[in-house]
Amino acid sequence: MSPRTGRPKIDKPKTIEVKARIDEETNEKLMKYCKENQLSRTDVVRMGIEKVLEHK
């Protein structure tokens, strides 16, 4: 029998989805930041969460 194929298991799967409503101006700023820094919106949100938690 051949070994299992497919994606390998990861240590910390990202299974939680977070949604937020933002205004057009904030979205434009977010998209500009993402484009300039070659990051996804999700990456920026994760970075923001970590930054807030650092200041606890």
Automatic annotation (TrEMBL):
Looking up InterPro entries in the UniProt record yields: Ribbon_hlx_hlx (IPR010985)
Extract one GO BP annotation from the record. regulation of DNA-templated transcription
Q: What domain of life?
A: Bacteria
Name the UniProt record assigns to this protein: CopG family transcriptional regulator
From which organism does this entry originate?
Dorea formicigenerans
What taxonomic ancestry is recorded?
A: Bacteria, Bacillati, Bacillota, Clostridia, Lachnospirales
